[in-house]
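A note from the maintainers: we've had questions about how concatenated examples are separated. There is no special marker in the raw files; a new sequence line simply starts the next protein. For clarity in this README we add a label.
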Amino acid sequence: MHPDADVRARTARTAELVDQLHSIVTELERMHPGRRFPLDGHLVGSIGEAAAEAMFALTLRPASTAGYDAVADDGRAVEIKATYGTGGVGLRSSSHDAAAALVVIRLSRHPDEEHEVVYNGPLSRVAHAAGAVQSNGQARLGLGRLRQLNTTVPDNERVRRR
């Protein structure tokens, strides 16, 4: 099987399974009024990495590779951040040392809607825009600011789309 065909098949099945997760969350929230059941943390990160693999010409690294999540087809180490939210993402300082590129995705809850690429470009372009490092070791990057910075990235500095 051609590698791109494998990615397409896994991407389609991943979208189906993630849609089931959202249906489960919706049902739990209906059953327990006033209670939220957000998809959070590692699960969202892994969903984002799978989405990035489908969208971009990159190869995912083993989970918990220090400072980056994938390698682009041009050899750059890529940090991937994902969220379902509207506020922002956190970036660890270890990423600044290891990753050359950053891809930030706002995930869609619906399989028929595309994920939004909030930022795709050099990590160094956003490092100065990050807030102060918080007690969790991460600096916060607002999605609005990332969208703004994304408009300044030349095409030749972006991770190539599939």
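[label: protein 2]
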Amino acid sequence: MPSSQIKPKGFSLIELLVVVAVVLILAAIAVPNLLRAKRAANEASSVASLRSISNGQMVYRHSQGVYTTLAGLGSEDVIDNVLASGSKSGYLFASGPGADPAMQFSADAAPAVSSGIGASGTRFYFVSQDQIIRFNVGAAADSSSSPLP
């Protein structure tokens, strides 16, 4: 068979480069949106976890007369063991009784990584015995921070 009648099989280098370029453009569009969605999901999970901690503190106080630590809530099975460990969904949690353990407690949630492309969240959260979850962007939240809408 003459070589002019043989059809080449496969793709040319130009065709492969065009496909790779299209895939890279799509990835450049999709990855930031994916990271933003993951950060939003982590923040929503941390708010739900703080609600669980806050409700758990109230239940513990009604049964024991005082507020307790995160580990205390976990040991009494008031909250799940993952949350009692202090780390969940890219956030670090802490909770404990206040100066008067029968009347005060506080709990906070801070992102494990709060800046950069791999940030697990940008909002810091706080809740106390008033049951109002408060937040601050970029720094730790406290009782004077803005309440969640």
